[in-house]
Structure formats: C-alpha cells, structure tokens
Amino acid sequence: MTIFQAPKGTYDLIPPDSAKYLAVREAIAAPLRNSGYGYVETPGFENVELFARGVGESTDIVTKEMYAFETKGGDRLALRPEGTASVLRAALEANLHKSGNLPVKLWYSGSYYRYERPQKGRYRHFSQVGAEAIGAEDPALDTELIVLADQAYRSLGLSGFRILLNSLGDRECRPVYREALQGFLRGLDLDEDTRRRVDINPLRVLDDKRESVRKQLVGAPLLRDHLCDACKAYHEEVRELLTAASVPFEDDERLVRGLDYYTRTTFEFVHDGLGSQSAVGGGGRYDGLSEMIGGPALPSVGWALGVDRTVLALEAEGIALELPASTSVFAVPLGEEARRALFAVVTGLRRAGVAADFSYGGKGLKGAMKSANRSGARYALVAGERDLADGVLQLKDMESGEQAPVALDSAVEEIRARLA
Ligand code: AMP
C-alpha cells in the first residue's frame, strides 16, 4: 500500500525546522502581549456568509479561494481564509465593545485556508499571527500596529523588508474616487473579467499584476488626489507618528490589498528576498466592517503577518535563530539497575526545569551515545552497575569529552548548578 501524502499545497512542520515556526510566532506575539493585546482564539470555520459579507463578495478570496461546504445538518460553513472577520465577530458576540474600554485589543495565531495555486510562499494551508484594535479611530493606534510589526520583524533580526503605506479614503471620498477611476478604466482595452471587476470593484484593478493591464494604468487617477480633508489629515498624522518612531516607510499610492473592508490607512510589509510572493504581512483600517457583519459602527485597525513567509524571509537573509537547546542532559543507563536510577534522576531534572531526555529501548552504550549526540545535549549522564555501587553517576561534557563523577544523591542540584 502506498503511504498517504499531505494534500496539495500543504506541508508538515517537522523537527528541527518546526522550532523556527514556533520561534517566529512567539517573536511576533511578544510585542503585542507587551502592548495591551489579549489573546483570542476563534473556530477554524465560520458561517460562510461572515466571509462573503466581511471580506467581500467580489474578492478572489471569496469567489475562488474559499473552502466552503455544507454540513450534514445543512449549515453552510467555510474554513477561515483570514482572521479579521472572525475576530470581530467574536468580539461583537461577546459584547467586548460594550465594556466601556475601547479599543478592544486582541491578538491571535492560527491556520488559514485558501484554495490558491500553490507555489513557494503560497500555500493552501498557511499560518498567520494577527492583531486587531477594535473600536477606536486614532492615528496613533494605526501607527502602534505598524510599529509593533516592525519591532517583531526586527527582533527576529530581519532588515530586508519595506513598509508600503497608503490611504484608501473613507465613505466620503472613496465613492467619488471610485467613479473617477471607473471613468478612466472604462476607456481601456480590458478583457471581460476585468471589465466586470471595473463595475464591481474598480480599485482592485489597480492591483492587477499582468503587464498588459499595468501598462494601461499609467495615468490612472490616484486616490491620493481625491482624499477628503479628514482622511488627508489622518494619513498625515500616521506618517508623522511613524517618522517620529523612526520606522521608515514608503508611500505607495497603488497599494489596495485583496480584501474589501479596508478604509483609510492600508499597509503592507514586503520582503525583497522572496520573489513573487513578497508580501510577508499586511493590514489596515476597516472602519466599515463591523456594520457590514451586522454590528454597530466600530472603527478598527489590524494586521496579519504570515508565519510561513517570515520563515522564508529569515532563510533569505541567512538568519539562524538562536533556539533554546531542546535537551541539556541525555541519560545513558547501562543495565537494568542503572535504568531505574537514571530514570528517577531524569524525572528529578525535568521537575527542576532542566531539559532532559533518556535512552529508551535498551540500547547499548554505543547506540545510546549516538542518541545523546543527536539530541544536541550539553551533557551525557552515564551510569553502570559499578557507578551505582560507588553512589555516583558519570557526567560527560559532550563538547570537551571530559567526564567527572557526580554523587547520585545530589545529582539534580549539581547538574542544575553546572548548567546555570
Ligand atoms: P492577507 O490576509 O491576504 O492580507 O495576508 C496577510 C499575510 O498572510 C500575507 O502577507 C502573507 O504573508 C500571508 N499569506 C496570505 N496568503 C497566504 C498563502 N496562501 N500562503 C502563505 N502565506 C499567505
């Protein structure tokens, strides 16, 4: 029988590489935890309508990429393609917005699903860490989120990324711009699909990557020239606060992003070492989303950073994370009596917070020492019958090869002290 393989567009995280993913998630979460964001976890699937209304009926995510299905009970659900709609739904459902303590600041980490054409950096099952600040309109809040993402990437040692920044306007000025853009786009030579997009979501046409479309977009009206005074002032404040925080950014008037809910501040983190899938993270303000999914007006802002692409960015920059050693002490028992004694010591070490492992399966000295080597342990703890008779264990430094006896009775304390 052939063995099963992971479905197309998915992959398994396996040691030792999997440790990098954990470290990246942790590094992204750390600045959030430190800035008033509380952890939120939502289901892996939701009512399909939440995404249709929230993310947008005309987006690729909803029309082409969503894993939607009907349950035996007749519910229409979808695997979550992104986090924001779910998190906002959860906050509304729990009435967090009525706590009198706005903004509600939440962070999350999880798996997301999009039926995309797989390639390096683009998967059907991928991992994001995200943050949402719900219920406040304040340029400092938009800035906070960008600064925290920048801090997260820098804490990992990354430097080859850029922050692209734009404003998408609000319900005042965007419709006026939309019409001007539609007028321009209708004069171009476009295929039927794109012409339909011009009617439903003309801003998205600006994001078209095809050269045949791109070259016609030169001279398209820019949202920048249509922003109302309030949006202009808001955007200017975000730019100034970012500058004051020493976070460099680039103005990108064509940045629109693939989700419909964004208003005003929109940003993307791109990494130049990643080829075509260069966006490592992105986000923005979504002042209208709450109302779109049936809630009250709750101006909000958030981002999601891709864990998979952040790991690729680390590899592109040749950064090896300093990961904590998974095992400090590896126990090698020689004989039945030593097995019991060492097992007790390993248990004691673990209870004392020392990472310890044990040679299982009755291996001989050679095989067990090989395991000790592979574990990356700092010390091997070896004992045979004679050692036990003398009331000692042999502690071998795996780097220098030096070996010294430690008293069985005080082994845990002594080893702990040496490691400290
Ligand atoms: P989005 O939710 O589309 O704004 O994406 C936010 C971030 O998630 C992107 O910048 C990517 O880093 C990551 N991402 C989105 N889609 C995928 C995917 N199919 N595979 C891997 N990472 C993804």
Please characterize this protein's 3D structure:
The chain is an alpha+beta fold. The chain has two domains: 247 residues, BirA Bifunctional Protein, domain 2 (2-Layer Sandwich); 91 residues, Rossmann fold (3-Layer(aba) Sandwich). The protein has 16 helices and 16 strands. Strand 9 and strand 10 form a beta hairpin. Helix 1 packs antiparallel against helix 5 and helix 5 runs parallel beside helix 10. The longest helix has 17 residues. The chain binds adenosine monophosphate. The site of adenosine monophosphate has 17 residues, from strand 6, strand 10, strand 11 and helix 12. It is found in: Cytoplasm. It catalyses: tRNA(His) + L-histidine + ATP = L-histidyl-tRNA(His) + AMP + diphosphate + H(+). Belongs to the class-II aminoacyl-tRNA synthetase family.
Beta-strand percentage? 15-25%
Q: Shape from CA axes?
A: elongated
The total strand number stands at 16
CATH architecture of the largest domain: 2-Layer Sandwich
The CATH class label of the largest domain is Alpha Beta
How far apart the termini lie comes to 51 Å
Spell out the key features of this protein.
BirA Bifunctional Protein, domain 2, alpha+beta, 420 residues, Rossmann fold, binds adenosine monophosphate, single chain, eight-stranded mixed beta sheet, five-stranded mixed beta sheet, elongated
What's the quick description here?
The protein has about 425 residues and is an alpha+beta fold.
Secondary-structure map with pairings?
Elements: H1 18-33, E1 38-39, E2 45-47, H2 48-55, H3 60-63, E3 68-70, E4 76-79, H4 84-93, E5 104-113, E6 125-134, H5 139-155, E7 161-167, H6 174-185, H7 192-200, H8 202-205, H9 211-214, H10 229-244, E8 250-251, E9 263-271, E10 279-285, H11 289-292, E11 300-306, H12 307-316, E12 329-333, H13 336-351, E13 356-358, H14 365-375, E14 379-383, H15 385-389, E15 392-397, E16 403-407, H16 411-419
Parallel strand pairs: 1-5, 7-8, 12-13, 12-14
Antiparallel strand pairs: 2-4, 3-4, 5-6, 6-11, 7-9, 9-10, 10-11, 14-15, 15-16
Helix pairs in contact: 1-5, 1-12, 5-10, 13-16
The protein binds adenosine monophosphate.
The site of adenosine monophosphate has 17 residues, from strand 6, strand 10, strand 11 and helix 12.
